[in-house]
Design brief:
Two copies of one chain form a homodimer. With 724 residues, chain A is an all-alpha fold. Chain A has four domains: 125 residues, no CATH class; 214 residues, no CATH class; 159 residues, no CATH class; 135 residues, no CATH class. The first copy, chain A, is 66% helix and 2% strand. A three-stranded antiparallel beta sheet of chain A has the order 1-2-3. A two-stranded antiparallel sheet of chain A has the order 4-5. In chain A, strand 1 and strand 2 form a beta hairpin. The relative contact order of chain A is 0.10. The N terminus and C terminus of chain A are likely disordered. At the A-B interface, helix 9, helix 11, helix 12, helix 20 and helix 24 of A face helix 9, helix 11, helix 12, helix 20 and helix 24 of B.
Chain lengths: 724, 724
């Protein structure tokens, strides 16, 4: 473990302290938790390890490795197995090299203590073993199963960059015990209802539509009622009993109330509660680790300004570090950040101010060079004339936006209408003209450079009259009203996190797809050729006359990885699997039940929990303290961009109306440089998470003492199962 | 408005102050908010108004009024229309009398200001008008519609006792603006996806299974995609496109991700957030009103003990009031409550202590007279002998419970198995014997009276070997482990609130059933007679060959109120309505879409929000302060019941093992009376709600100043729409 004093001792070993400090700051900014060796060559290797090219390469090879499923049996595009195996070997080589690189960066003992490294090594070895066995079997013309393909998505979880994904898995694992208790109760309820159903309906000699006996086998009933919870077989499962007497409907209504509505809500409640609890703890550890890193960076840079005074960091060192961390930062932006940190203008900052840096760098600030409208400089008399000013006011007015919203809406309706009609076809040109007019008007009113830089998306979309851009433009404009803002902001904010959930889903889907392909491949076939008689029963005589074949679900099969994925999506929405139980064995249902439990009960609920939490944060918190202080500073320095396309517009205009003289002079005094916080976006998911639980974190907690739990093995220790 | 000084002045007008105080306390206990006249005869009328017989009568007649739908055309049991109309007239009469009674109780101006009274009057008048019109039309042999039947369930909302229901409706109304914005965005997204679907798929000449053109009409697409959100037509709606190319599946997957998962979560988030916000405000007002009433009761009873001292209530007056409020309270229980209030044993209590009374009365306390085991008195030498003590310890041991759990589980499995087998049939007797043994053993170990009173349900169920009692017993035992306790407690606690949601659902279902019956009655027919050829197409040629008829959904119709209700439940689970659009007109779909929006998007989400909130309260709060203080007092007085069927058992037993002598003497000293808080149940839904938001309420806030909003018109003012 690297201790503070050790760093201080090592201060003099490096040619450049700033490199080390910059690494600490950068690690803090992106929440990297790699406890690299501090020897000079290890630091150089670490810088290389974090280089984006290597990361992209790694993810590219993971992608290649995962997409090998497209070319392996059962394949979408069949390739000889030696080709896929050669490519896989290459991928394995890349992963091994990356791992060796990582081993060189961090201390030896840390490397072997980290479970994710062990995981990768095991995955690599197992894959190699599997490839050898498979190759041998192939050579001997035996049937072989590439079982190690199930392990491939686990690489996505265990690479150093899979932090978000690991966190998501941890939060699932932590919620599992509680989910398990509810699941027991739920299954108990299902079993009891099944028993009741058997007693109530089993001996009445009812039949299903297919003429099979209805509710006579206990296990069949259990399965049918389980599927009823997913609402997939509602109301079919109830119809025979309901046709016999409406009294039986009460049984099913009661069942749906208890198991579909109450238990599913309880699952959500339990998942949500656990998710929140553990995530809070993880984020707390994350923030502690971040502060710890910033304190280390501070220790490297600190100077003693006065005898006996607090150690500080001078502006010069600060500038150099910021430049190293973010080479593309503009000088103006850096000056702004410094003035936020050095609030009292002392030329040096203490520890508290320095620690903010990582978060400050995460706030996106847009720098705009503002200048007067070129027409105003060229021909002020004309541009300042009454009709010109009226035009400006009209274009700046909210009604202008609304009118164009309506135009786009009408355009959308026209696109939806019959295109054969020549009038409608010609209307496209009218709309094009209207959009061009809008852009010209806006160019007249707003300074062109500012117009292009800030509202690029906003203003440029309408000029492309293609369908999609219209939609996008309309979408953005519809989203505009203030009332929608909270909802939209949250939706935008949820965006990056959905990527994590996307990876999570891919990991789970991939595993289920691999297993499903082994179990069900070519059991159900899809025929492109409509004349083939086998099409009517999906190429499997067992399906003759079943609803599966009648509804033409033949393409819902496990015959290749693409259709497997699409089928799994369908199963997530509505768990329909009767066909596969028919063509194989009743026990195939177990596969589908496990999938439902994993994906719908656990993952979808965690996703819903995340969306709920994100919304409540948006509703309750408005801005982080740091963001506010940055904004305040920008306003203090009178560098704020006037937000003319916002609600303030009307107010601003009223001010202009009331007091034209002053506003004119104010306009003349406008500084040449302006800032605007792109407040509603977060660079990293971590920043969003941190904000979620910000209220509970003590800003003065510097984590000076290494938190043994948080920093035990280069990764966060997983919270233990404490709910048992 | 009745002011504090007014009450003090009036002190001397009544023959009995205690009656008035008791009414205030009782109103506070049950959260009644009726601002009755304080004149003596009005108070007597008010007591009568609150009498349970009148309330039961009122609900009985509401039930009769609602169930008239069973006998009116289209009827389950047809009755001549003069009979149903006569009964309805009787119901109207009862409601009118009840309303007149209410008008006599409260001041005239309050009566006319209260919207719920106006509502009832309007409903009664409209019903009368409708009956006259319908009677006239019938007499003239014309077709008449009993449109006023839609208004019937509104009575349930507007009677004085419908407080919970009104609150639920208010919370829905308050959430509506926010829901509306999300709904706009959601519909916009659906419309845009539909447009894309039209452009992508409309011109490819694809056909559905029925051979109809696929995705060619914009409105059809919008409807299909809306239904896809409910997952009802997944994957059918996607299959034609997916069969054409798997690329189109991506479109549908994207659609489901955005509209089913994200937007539905957003609906839940918005509903939940609004629900929480407004409920908090309502409960705050409720608590203020309750305290206000208690302060009034205090003002009536107060005495000046010392010159210049704080006014107090003596124990004698307190006893008399408690006796009036709850005549069946035991003296011991009353003494206990007094000792909680009069913490310092001063013989009189101040305002703060008095105000607690309403909440204290709501905590259910079980009084148990404890005595030594009769065998111990009869034959101590035998009962105290080593084998007897060993037996007692065995029966008290946790393993004993587990063993009997296993026995019941085995019994349940046996019941589920084939009954023809004689061995299994005979096994019933073995189980019966085992259950009898259990009861005998418990009777030997525990004092019989305590055994019967406390564990009645627990211990008695197994002795009845019928199926249902087995299930109940097993259910209770399975719920027993500590781990499940939180979940079970919450589920039990949710119980009474579900009744409110049940009423809410009934109101909405009834209205939709009445409208649906007018629109769709006899369009789809169910034939009991299997030989009838019309059965194959539900008696409507339009349904020939449709999936609706093929799946034998004929009994899902609007032909009477019972099948309408069952159909509406099915629509709540999965919105399947293709059949009804086929037999009437495409616009019939509007009915189903509105139903889906009302029930699934709004009401089900509010229900889920309630369950979530109840869970989080259970997870975060453990016990209310008052309950804890009552428990503390019980323990202080050493009157607590030893909980031998809990976890403490093992610890308690270890103590006995270590120190037998003391525990024996302690057992001898056991008081003859014991208390136990039935902590996990709440008498009223209000108490649960209050507990939910207890943390935010200031216990010292007595609402001395009338809150104009809270007490404006005898009912709570509805929070205004402030989110716009």
């Amino acid at each position: 473990q690297i201790e503070g004093p050790h760093i201080t001792m090592c201060r003099f070993c490096y040619s450049n302290d700033f490199d080390l400090a910059a690494i600490y700051v950068s690690d803090a900014q992106y929440n990297r938790n790699i406890y690299f060796d501090t020897s000079p060559q290890a630091v150089r290797l670490y810088l290389l390890y974090n280089h984006w090219v290597l990361k992209v390469l790694l993810y590219f090879f993971i992608l290649v490795d995962l997409s090998l499923a497209l070319f392996e049996e059962p394949a979408v595009v069949p390739l000889p197995s030696w080709v896929t195996m050669l490519v896989e070997l290459l991928c394995l080589l890349v992963f091994t090299l990356r791992l060796i690189h990582y081993a060189k960066v961090i201390p030896r003992d840390k490397f072997w203590k980290d479970p994710k490294n062990i995981c990768i090594i095991v995955i690599l070895l197992l894959t190699l073993v599997d490839m050898i066995i498979y190759g041998a079997l192939k050579a001997a013309n035996c049937y072989g199963v590439r079982w190690s393909r199930v392990l491939r998505p686990l690489l996505l979880v265990n690479v150093t960059e899979g932090r978000q994904l690991r966190r998501a898995f941890r939060s699932i694992r932590n919620a599992l015990p509680q989910i398990f208790y509810v699941f027991l109760l739920f299954m108990f309820s299902v079993l009891m209802f099944s028993l009741m159903a058997l007693k109530l309906l089993g001996k009445r000699g009812l039949t299903t539509i297919e003429g099979a006996p209805y509710f006579t086998s206990y296990l069949e009933i259990v399965f049918d009622l389980y599927v009823l919870v997913t609402t997939a077989n509602s109301p079919d499962v109830m119809m025979p009993a309901y046709n016999a007497s409406f009294v039986f409907a009460i049984f099913f209504i009661l069942y749906i109330l208890i198991n579909t509505y109450i238990f599913m809500s309880v699952f959500l409640a339990v998942v949500y509660n656990n998710y929140k609890k553990y995530l809070k703890e993880e984020v707390r550890q994350l923030v502690r680790a971040k502060r710890h890193k910033m304190v280390r960076a501070f220790a490297v840079l600190q100077e003693q300004k006065e005898e006996g005074g607090e150690p500080v960091v001078s502006q010069a060192s600060w500038n150099q570090v910021v430049h190293l961390v973010q080479p593309d930062i503009s000088n103006a932006h850096r000056e702004l950040l410094w003035s936020v940190c050095d609030d009292k203008n002392q030329g040096a900052i203490g520890k508290v101010a320095f620690v903010q840096l990582a978060d400050l760098l995460n706030i996106e600030v847009i720098t705009i060079k503002s200048r007067p409208h070129p027409l105003n400089s060229l021909c002020p008399a004309f541009y300042q004339s009454a009709p010109s000013r009226l035009l400006c006011r009209m274009v700046q007015h909210r009604a202008f936006v609304i009118v164009y919203d309506l135009i786009i809406l009408v355009n959308a309706v026209f696109i939806g209408l019959d295109e054969e009609n020549p009038m409608i076809a010609n209307s496209e040109w009218v709309f094009l003209a209207l959009y061009m007019l809008e852009i010209l008007l806006k160019l007249y009113v707003f300074e062109p450079r500012a117009f292009f830089s800030r509202h690029s998306f906003w203003n440029w979309t309408p000029c492309d009259v293609s369908l999609l851009s219209d939609l996008a433009s309309l979408t953005i404009r519809t989203m505009f009203p203030v009332r929608f803002r909270t909802i939209i902001n949250t939706l935008i904010r949820i965006g990056p996190a959905i990527l994590t959930f996307g990876q999570l889903i891919i990991v789970v889907y991939y595993i289920f797809a691999m297993v499903g392909m082994e179990l069900f491949k070519n059991k159900v076939k899809f025929y492109e050729d409509t004349s083939d008689p086998a099409k009517a029963y999906c190429g499997n005589p067992l399906l003759k006359g079943t609803a599966f074949a009648q509804l033409n679900y033949c393409k819902n099969n496990f015959n290749n990885v693409v259709s497997s994925f699409i089928l799994l999506v369908e199963l997530t929405v509505v768990n329909q699997c009767s066909g596969f139980a028919t063509v194989t064995h009743m026990s195939a249902r177990i596969f589908f039940v496990i999938f439902h439990i994993m994906v719908v009960i656990v993952i979808i609920n965690i996703f819903v929990a995340f969306v709920l939490e994100a919304f409540f944060v948006e509703y309750s918190v408005d801005k982080s303290d740091l963001q506010t202080s940055l904004e305040k500073k920008i306003e203090e320095l009178e560098l704020a961009v006037a937000q003319y396309v916002t609600d303030n517009l009307v107010n601003a205009m009223e001010t202009i109306d009331n007091d034209l003289g002053t506003s004119q002079s104010a306009a003349a005094n406008v500084p040449s440089l302006m800032f605007k916080i792109a407040s509603k976006r977060y660079r990293t998911v971590d920043a969003l998470l941190q904000r979620m639980f910000e209220a509970d974190l003590d800003p003065e907690d510097f984590a000076e003492h290494d938190d043994p739990e948080a920093q035990g093995n280069g990764n966060f220790a997983n919270p233990t199962f404490s709910s048992a």
